[in-house]
Amino acid sequence: MKRKLTQRGRERRQQILDQAARLFAERGYHPTSVAEIVDSLGVGKGVFYWYFESKEDLFLEILAFSSHDLRRRQQAAIGDEPDPLRRIELGIRASLQWFRQHRHLFNLSQFAATEGRFAAVLHQNDAVAIDDITRHLKEAMVDGRIADQDPTMLAHALMGATRHLARTYLYAADEPVEVVADVAVGFVLHGLTGGPPAARLNR
Amino acid sequence: MKRKLTQRGRERRQQILDQAARLFAERGYHPTSVAEIVDSLGVGKGVFYWYFESKEDLFLEILAFSSHDLRRRQQAAIGDEPDPLRRIELGIRASLQWFRQHRHLFNLSQFAATEGRFAAVLHQNDAVAIDDITRHLKEAMVDGRIADQDPTMLAHALMGATRHLARTYLYAADEPVEVVADVAVGFVLHGLTGGPPAARLNR
Amino acid sequence: MKRKLTQRGRERRQQILDQAARLFAERGYHPTSVAEIVDSLGVGKGVFYWYFESKEDLFLEILAFSSHDLRRRQQAAIGDEPDPLRRIELGIRASLQWFRQHRHLFNLSQFAATEGRFAAVLHQNDAVAIDDITRHLKEAMVDGRIADQDPTMLAHALMGATRHLARTYLYAADEPVEVVADVAVGFVLHGLTGGPPAARLNR
Amino acid sequence: MKRKLTQRGRERRQQILDQAARLFAERGYHPTSVAEIVDSLGVGKGVFYWYFESKEDLFLEILAFSSHDLRRRQQAAIGDEPDPLRRIELGIRASLQWFRQHRHLFNLSQFAATEGRFAAVLHQNDAVAIDDITRHLKEAMVDGRIADQDPTMLAHALMGATRHLARTYLYAADEPVEVVADVAVGFVLHGLTGGPPAARLNR
DNA sequence: AATGAATGAGGATTCATTCAT
DNA sequence: AATGAATGAATCCTCATTCAT
User: Fold this and answer.
1) Whole-number pLDDT of residue C200
2) Which nucleotides of E are covered by protein (CB under 7 A)?
3) How far B13 CA sits from the closest chain A CA (Å)?
4) Do residues C46 and C145 both lie within one domain?
5) pLDDT score, position B199
6) Does one domain contain both A38 and A110?
7) Which of A121, A148, B109, B110 is the most exposed place for a label (fewest CB within 10 A)?
8) Subunits close to D (at least 3 CB pairs below 8 A)
9) Which one, of C70, C61, C80, C79, lies nearest residue C14 by Cα?
10) Do B107 and A113 touch (CB under 8 A)?
């Protein structure tokens, strides 16, 4: 494949990508047919196969794009903040903002995890994020800010809490991002029994 | 539907249920055909439809069964423990044990969340679990054991962290349950920065 | 097949016959499954095949029964009436009464005409009726009561008019039998332009 | 559905329509599978569903087409004939000619009457024809040409006689149209006992 | 006589993909 | 680049019939 695309071609391609992401998210990957995608764009079926190898290929690309985009957002938010725990907080807040804006992508990665051929890519993507977090955690451990434990496991716990909150309150419900972010950060840093919540609210 | 089943019938039914759960988990719901299910059991296609209305119906039943079974396990573990935080800990540990034994069911609920017709049931099931946890949290708040916050949000955070750890370490990897449970409980109760990990380890 | 049936056996058999006729009439032959027939009777599937060779066999029997029953009714009504035209009138009136009582059987013969394997039987049955009518007509021609024409064609015309009226007014609508019978007899004897309708009404 | 079809597309569509009508008529609607239709045309299965929503949809379309086509033929034959009885005669003769040419469609409407989902359309179609006839009859009554009676019932009687003759002599047998038409017209206008047949024959 | 269970061919329909234009 | 048309394997499901008990 790998076509050289004109400007117009690139736009069309993106158009398909977006529309497909929306439909996959709404109805699921399998229940969404290529026909529906192209019909909803008012174009012929050939267009799809001009820009993409296959339905699977398209899905993979959506997956790749979203994980890159999320990471870009996180890194922009973190900048060169020196405090590792603060970096984690910034990362969480940035993630939640991104999740809010791309709430429909939730379903996609959720689904991707359930089928072998997609799960692989997904885990690779996640590994990058976990790696980032793990680095911050190690630094914080060295600084004595958090107790010595398996930092990767902590990273997973953190990510699980954040994502589930996002999924529940930004996707299913419609809570303001800040409220969710405060809870997430508070919980991640101090757990259920940790420090005074008041301390957590001064953003 | 609603057939009167003989002993043999009930066994066959369960057999299909189990096999289907396994296959759905392994390959995904859509990629697993009814034909594959019955073939792998060495029975005719009609057998499937003798016991189940449809593929969808079967899946729904698997979903229902697993959420009930998990809850039963949690409640058995909690017993009449008076301390609400301890109840939460016991719940987490019990869940992780159940997850270990039924690791293949992970994918099923993961998938279920991505398609409207299944998501509904799933959320209903989850609501029950969240409710249980929320009750414990409220009690702990009344006791002043944890700071005043939206207990439902906390419940979600807790559940997210636990499930993600389970998914990662009990399903993808093969960590001993106790290790994962210790991290989970520690993280949930104290967050990243909370009390000394030593305190957490005395099960 | 040809089983020797006990009294109870004969009743069961008739029960199936009746129920099947009703269901076939209501929903059509093909859309009615053997399962539906036995389920609606609350018996197992084996019962059906105990009494009938096959679904097709059952249908054929219903067909045969109804044509015999109708003929019996016609002959009873005609008795030994000497006037051939009067015999025709009596036959029409008797038929309409029978049709009213067995309106559901309309669909069955209607359907039977459309599939080769059933059409044969149907035509044989019809041939008997046409034969009866033809005999009356010939006699009337000999008497000079009706003009010389192909009596069999007339018989078909007569039968067509009568059946269609029956179908329309006794099955779809719910007209009193006598009203329909008067119109039918009048039309058959005199056509559109024939003698004064008053003359037709003295039953 | 509602596709924009190219010339080629329209031809293919008609081809399927024709072939299906033939097969349905020959073997019956249910016993004819979509596979048989497409195989007999030497095309893939998908073609069918490119042009028709479903087998049912196709059948409905055949039904609609034939009733329209028959009516067109009747109206063309009647033209602006002022005499209402003559109009009826012309209508009968035109119908019989159409029936001869489309004898295979007999079975289709016959069958359609026996299943709820099709019966509705059929009755609607018939209602139009009955309406036409009823109008002529009313006019003839006003003119005193036929006795006062329910004109709609007469219309049904007339239609029943004509159709049954057609079915019997143009489909099952192979009588010349004119012969059947003469009998039909004679019977309809004068019944069994009506005016001299000689009068009827001078077309 | 009767039941629940099982069979498996067959049927309608879908859909990713390819092709001719 | 793009379209309508076509393919045909695959899918879910139905159902007449048979079987073991």
Assistant:
1) 38
2) 1-20
3) 25
4) no
5) 39
6) no
7) A148
8) C
9) C61
10) yes
pLDDT of residue A197: 45
pLDDT at A48 over 80: yes
Q: For B86-113, what is each residue's pLDDT tens digit?
A: 999 999 999 999 999 999 998 999 999 9
**Are D98 and D195 part of one and the same domain?**
yes
Do D80 and D45 fall into the same domain?
no
Rounded Cα–Cα distance for residues A59 and A118 (Å) = 9
Report the distance from CA of residue A44 to the C1' of nucleotide F6 in Å, as an integer.
14
**d(CA C60, C1' F3) / Å:** 53
Look up the CATH number of the domain holding residue B184: 1.10.357.10
Final residue before a domain boundary, out of D53, D74, D90: D53
Write out chain D residues lying below 8 Å of C158, CB-based.
Answer: 161, 187, 192
Domain holding B46, by residue range, is: 1-53
Write down the pLDDT at residue A62.
96
Q: What is the 3-state secondary structure (H, E, C) of A145-194?
A: CCCCCCHHHHHHHHHHHHHHHHHHHHHHCCCCHHHHHHHHHHHHHHCCCC
What band does D2 get if pLDDT is binned at 50, 70 and 90?
low
The reply to whether C64 has its C-beta less than 7 Å from any atom of strand E is no
Please give the share of chain A, as a percent, with pLDDT higher than 70.
94
Q: Which residues of D touch C183 (CB under 8 A)?
A: 149-150, 153-154, 157
Do B68 and B18 fall into the same domain? no
C-alpha–C-alpha distance, residues B107 and C141, integer Å: 85
For the segment D130-164, what is each residue's pLDDT rounded down to a tens digit? Answer: 999 999 999 999 999 999 999 999 999 999 999 99
**Distance between CA A111 and CA A15 in Å, rounded?**
22
Two tokens, residue D105: 């469609």
Nucleotide with minimal C1' distance from the CA of C53 is F17
In a domain, C186, yes or no: yes
Q: Which two tokens stand for residue A179?
A: 């409220």
The pLDDT value given to residue A4: 73
Residue that is last in its domain, among D53, D68, D91: D53
Average pLDDT over every residue of A32-50: 95
pTM for the structure as a whole: 0.90
H or E stretch covering D187: helix D177-190
B46 and B61 within one domain: no
| Domain count of the fold of chain D | 2
Residue C43 and residue C70 share a domain: no
**DSSP per residue over B128-164, as a string?**
HHHHHHHHHHHHHHHTTSS-SS-HHHHHHHHHHHHHH
Tokens coding B44: 């005719």
